[in-house]
Structures are given as C-alpha cells and as structure tokens.
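Example 252.
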Amino acid sequence: MKRLIMLSAVALLATSWMVTPAMAHGHESLGDVAKGHKIFQEGIGDDVPACAGCHGTDGMGADDMGTPRLAYQVETYIRKQLEDFASKKRMDNTMYQMNDIAGALTEEQRRDVAAYVHSLRTPFLGSDLDQLREDGEDVGTVYKGKLIVNYGIPDNGVPACKSCHAYNGRSAGNMFPAIGGQRYVYLKHELEAFRAGNTTPSSEDDASRDNDPMAIMRHVAAKLTDEDIKDAAAYLTVAKDATPGNPAAPKR
Ligand code: HEC
Ligand code: HEC
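Predicted structure in complex with heme C:
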C-alpha cells in the first residue's frame, strides 16, 4: 500500500512537471507586436514576402486564395503552426509557400508575428456563403453544421467540435484553435487534409495534414463525410464567438 502511494506521488510529480511548461505559455510575454507588424505588412527583404499579400492587410484571410484568417487566432497555436511549417511537419498544400516562408523566419520573428496577428481584434462576419455559392463553390448547409458542432454525429462516432474548440468554435486554452469565424474555403480544405492524413510523415506532394498532436483531428476527420465537412464549415464560418445576450466573448 505504502509503495502504491509512493508510486502515485511520483506519477503526480511527473505529470505536474510535464504540464507546467505548456501551461506557462499563456502567461509568458511572447513576442514584440511592433516588430511582428512590420514583418506582416512589409515582409523581410527578398526572403520573406509580406504576409498581408495573401492573408490580407487586416489578417482576415481570403477565400479566393484559400488562405486562413490569422487575426485574433490563439498565439501559441500560430507559433506552433509556423514551427511545424518550418520543420516540414506540416506541408502547405494550398499555395506551396508557407514552408519556405516560415523556414526563412527566425524563432524570434515567428514569435513577433504571432503576437501581432493575435493582437488584431477586428470583428469578422464570416465568409459570404451566398457569394461563394454564386462563384460556384460547393457550400454546405448551415443548420446541419450547427448540429455537428454542438452535438457531433453520435451514430458515426463523431465527437462534438465544441467539446474541444469550445462554444461555436471560439477556441479553448493554448492548444485548441479558433475555428469559428474562420474562412469557409480554408476550413473545408483543412478538414479534407486531416481526413487524408495518415500516421506516416508528410511528403511534399502529400495533400494531407498530419501535424495535429496525438492525431486528434485526424481521428475526428476520418469519420466525416464530404457533406459533413461542408456543413460544419458552413456553420463555423458564420458562427459568432459570443452567446446571445452576452456580447462579450471570453479572452483568448
Ligand atoms: C503566397 C501566399 C502566402 C504568404 C505570402 C503567406 N502565407 Fe501564410 N498561408 C498561406 C496559405 C495558402 C495557407 C494555408 C496552407 C495550408 O493549406 O495548409 C497559409 C497558412 C498559414 C498559417 C496557418 C494558420 C492556421 O490556422 O493553421 C499561418 C500561421 C500563416 N500562414 C502565417 C503566415 C505568416 C506569418 C506569413 C508572413 C511571414 C505568411 N503566412 C505569408 C499563404 C501565404
Ligand atoms: C478531441 C479534441 C478535438 C475535437 C473533438 C475536434 N478538434 Fe479540431 N482540432 C483539435 C486540435 C488539438 C487542433 C490543433 C491541431 C494542431 O495543433 O495542428 C484542431 C484543429 C482543427 C482545425 C484546423 C484549424 C486551423 O486553423 O488550421 C480545424 C478546421 C478543426 N480542428 C475542425 C474541427 C471540427 C469541424 C470538429 C468537429 C467535427 C473538431 N475540429 C473537433 C482538437 C479537436
């Protein structure tokens, strides 16, 4: 019995030791917003193009280029993605440029630019689904997507997106990015990429994404049909981050 208690004390110690550095991220002052602003809007010499050229001067992304909204995204998540692009753990399979761009930034510059995009609080109304439909994009059904986000698809083993990404996909903690208010085209593309992901490392011509910790998103996306993906993306892009009656969303 004594031995058991000792063992669990050791286990407890080990977990707290493992958890602390990750938790501390949220409280660290991470990057220099002013320096990040300059990188984002102007780029760096010939090596790094201005992020604004593809992600928009307001950081809101663009459906015609398939680029994501970066504005107000979770800072540690942005940093992780830039690190993963730099190390080729995640491959950009939309415009094939993020790996070179992230690789040309120093670790400090990645922190600075992450701090800057996180500081952009412009309200976002979501992709214009009617316009996308007119442009020939295959757009899903908002109310069906709402059910998936809130309840999952229990019959097919799909968990509620909300259980990790929080209310309307507004993000939770350092690990779970905001997916509500994200661009439709980008959401759809990422869900397809996670679904195509397997557990072997990415390759340059691979249309998959497999940099999610413990294959969490690959397991979720594996159970989604084409229709489910379009429906979830349609709801998420227009999903508001505050509850009705309480216009203030919690701080990310
Ligand atoms: C040539 C266009 C282009 C430029 C310039 C560009 N990006 Fe991107 N970026 C993209 C595309 C396309 C994606 C989506 C990649 C994918 O499909 O995986 C992306 C994805 C990202 C992501 C992942 C976001 C997420 O939600 O996971 C981050 C972070 C990012 N870019 C940051 C930057 C920063 C910082 C810069 C400037 C230093 C920059 N990008 C410059 C096109 C661009
Ligand atoms: C068990 C937890 C969990 C559940 C449930 C979950 N996700 Fe995720 N999701 C994650 C994590 C963790 C990441 C970040 C992956 C990374 O760090 O690269 C993520 C990333 C994503 C991304 C990429 C965001 C970006 O900016 O590139 C999308 C899109 C997404 N999830 C959609 C969904 C949808 C839709 C559902 C519901 C059908 C869902 N997720 C359910 C954990 C979860």
